[in-house]
Amino acid sequence: MAFVIEHMDGPLYEWSFIEYKHAASAIGREELWVTNLSRRGVERISPFASAYTKKAHQLLDINTLCVLDIDAEETLTPARASRFTHFVFGGIMGDNPRKHRTSSLIPGAKRFNLGKSQFTTDTAVMVAYLIKKGVKLGEMHFAYELEVNVEEGLSLTLPYHFLVIKGKPFVSPELIRHIINSHSF
Questions:
Q1: Which DSSP helix (H) or strand (E) runs through 151?
Q2: Which are the contacts of 12, defined by CB distance < 8 A and separation ≥ 6?
Q3: Torsion sign (Cα): 115, 1, 66, 172
Q4: In the chain, what are the domains?
Q5: Residue 40: how many CA atoms within 13 Å on its side-chain side?
Q6: What whole-number distance in Å separates Cα of residue 141 and Cα of residue 111?
Q7: What is the signed CA dihedral for 87, 126, 48, 57, rounded to 10 degrees?
Q8: 133, 140, 181, 184: most buried by Cβ count inside 10 Å?
Q9: What does each C-alpha distance from 103 to 45, 107, 134 come to in angstroms?
Q10: Alpha helix (H) ranges present in 28-77?
């Protein structure tokens, strides 16, 4: 079983790197693949996940995978997830409003959504992982938007849904630090 992020943003931006690393730390190095990377991207990702320059459709049998696409008509359930060994995500973040780029991933593949909310890549991976383990989407808790306090009297709002685990949003502390440190106001 593998959860496959098809990197779709060209350069491996630091926030993508951090999200991919966070997903791997949550589900395990063996279970996370990142595809469509530059050679330098493969070098950076390889310490914590399987990393490839090839695209997912070049590595996988279309019959063993499903693409997680917010625009898919049907929602992934544990019963549906049991039919697949690979779950493919578009490694896309930062488009608000969305550009619907995941729809271009692996034409002809089965497609399911994880609800109609836009997730960060690491959240999407974790949600699919939990569904594959038998947890229903309706049993999970989510927070919409995450407010990041930059300094007293100043905050940023991340306009995505975040899985809530043990009362806390599933987000990398490293990503929060990166957001705070990379914005000038």
A1: strand 141-151
A2: 37, 38, 40, 41, 44, 45
A3: positive
A4: 2-136 (3.40.1280.30)
A5: 6
A6: 23
A7: 10
A8: 140
A9: 25, 8, 26
A10: 39-45, 56-59
For the segment 34-76, what is each residue's pLDDT rounded down to a tens digit?
999 999 999 999 999 999 999 999 999 999 999 999 889 999 9
Both tokens assigned to 99:
């550009």
Residue 160 tokens, joined: 């995505």
CA–CA distance, 16 with 56 (Å, rounded to integer): 17
The pTM assigned to this predicted structure is 0.91
Listed in sequence order, the residues at least 6 apart from 171 whose beta carbon sits closer than 8 Å to its beta carbon are 22, 120, 122, 123, 146, 162
Residue 11: enclosing H or E segment and its boundaries? none
